[in-house]
């Protein structure tokens, strides 16, 4: 919020036009407060002793509450009766829950929870104190003082938030993109669905909404500076790039581009198209996200930057259709993962680790913070490693060793060839997952639309054997929008029961390199760059008394850059003259495809079992080759990849180190005319995983 916006807000608060006929009603600080009491005696197993202690402590607590809050309650239950407390909360009859537990040493442990805002991640959910052993009168007096402070804190915060939300929606430029206030009925409503919202849900959406002061100039400077750097590199390598110069800065050239005649799939190196352009798109996207733009706005800017590069910066070349697809779409998936990681580490403690990781994953934002001398907003809730606990996350760094067996067949005019080999390998990797929903994995209820890349995950993996690099994989996925619902509760042991689910749309990028041959053929590699275009995603979590089961299903339509699995065998018996240029020069082709990935994970206490499956199917795009007019040998290509993995894991005491034993198999197949190439690889792997 700018200084101007704050001054406008303060002016409105001072005059507070609440008598304007609108039905907005802030919390009445002098009204009757309703609260539920519970009490217990720690360490006692005798139910009679516990009931007597509950009555005694409830009386002490009720007396202090009456003096501090000017309110009364005749309700008293056992603090260990989680079901009774949950029923009281759900009834809606109580605004607060006050609990007193007498410890074995005579101290009194008191907590007070605001049930009006029990899902509000912007404030502490409860206040808690331990009053040292003393007389009942002395403890009561101390408790009264603490309760007075809690009462003022709870209610003044609520009043301020109601005023801020109402006046911001009514008067501040831009208001909110997600909610509005209806003066006719005095209710908050979701802009998209029109759904009526409670104050708590409206405040949550408002508090989590990105700032409205978008940094247009900052984002534009960063994008054009990045483009300028690329232009410098491009012209510095004039000798290499000149081979694609077929057009000029003249009307005939522009007419070909605008009509689509000069918009083609290029035949650059596989790495240029499947690594370089996705990373460029990720930076375009990040520049926008760090300037407080939405996921959609950032994607559109990445597309515009890519188009500017293709049409303007590379004006002497045909426009690369594949770059217009890969750069913004893959960039969006990678960029959102990086944006969420950078923001996550920015919220943690002000430590070297968090600052370095925030700079690595969120470079544009950290650069802007450094230039503007702004400091990130740190979370008050942090865990063992100094990371924020307001956002659910799981990071895993692993290394291990295993044994692989591979076999395959190659069929063609020369007959069938078979091969097999086996050996040991070593794997190293890093995985991240962030679910940016503060209530996820915690007790509470929620039901809301999400628009801000709340589910992201990524993985980086390398497998090495005696011949060198056997496999390299990179994957990034971001769920961009959807609907989230949760209903969970916690028992006395801290175990969750209930469910949460998210259904929406996600996009992903999958890049992998796998060695095909052995010995003299180690240079031959299977290469895939797969843009998982926007597709449906489901994320379901079930909890019951310590058991958790999670299921994730993704279905994507694909645009892929596929090195044909059968091209080497086909080339032994056929001439490459007259075939598509990218296949002749680089041995890959562009394809449409489909990807299906179900995953199931179950965990109980320190044990985990899981299985995941992935199916990819690709069919060549048989038009728009860079030199389509010169193709005389027309044919289609198809490739498949099917993989599955099952694992068992045990987490050692301390909850940061676990051992994972897995079995995985990958089946790869390619077809060109009468040539087919098949390969099956099965691996048993043991990994030691550092979880943080």
Q: Can you walk me through this structure?
A:
The structure is a single chain. The protein has 692 residues and is an alpha+beta fold. It folds into three domains: 173 residues, Rossmann fold (3-Layer(aba) Sandwich), CATH 3.40.50; 157 residues, no CATH class; 300 residues, Beta Barrel (Outer membrane phospholipase (ompla), Chain C), CATH 2.40.230. Helix content is 33%, strand content 38%. It contains 15 helices and 23 strands. It has a twelve-stranded antiparallel beta barrel. Strands 2-1-3-4-5 form a five-stranded mixed beta sheet, sandwiched between helices. A three-stranded antiparallel beta sheet has the order 6-7-8. The longest helix is centred in the first third of the chain and has 36 residues.
Would you spell out the secondary-structure blueprint of this structure?
Blueprint (H helix, E strand, L loop, with lengths): L2 H13 L19 E7 L5 H23 L6 E3 L3 H10 L4 E7 L5 E7 L11 E6 L4 H36 L7 E4 L4 E4 L5 E2 L1 H10 L7 H21 L1 H4 L9 H9 L3 E2 L5 H20 L5 H19 L5 E2 H27 L4 H10 L1 H10 L19 E21 L2 E21 L8 E7 L4 E11 L2 E23 L5 E20 L9 E20 L2 E17 L3 H7 L7 H6 L1 E17 L2 E14 L16 E15 L5 E16 L2 E17 L1
Helix pairs in contact: 1-4, 2-4, 6-9, 9-10, 9-11, 10-11, 11-12, 12-13
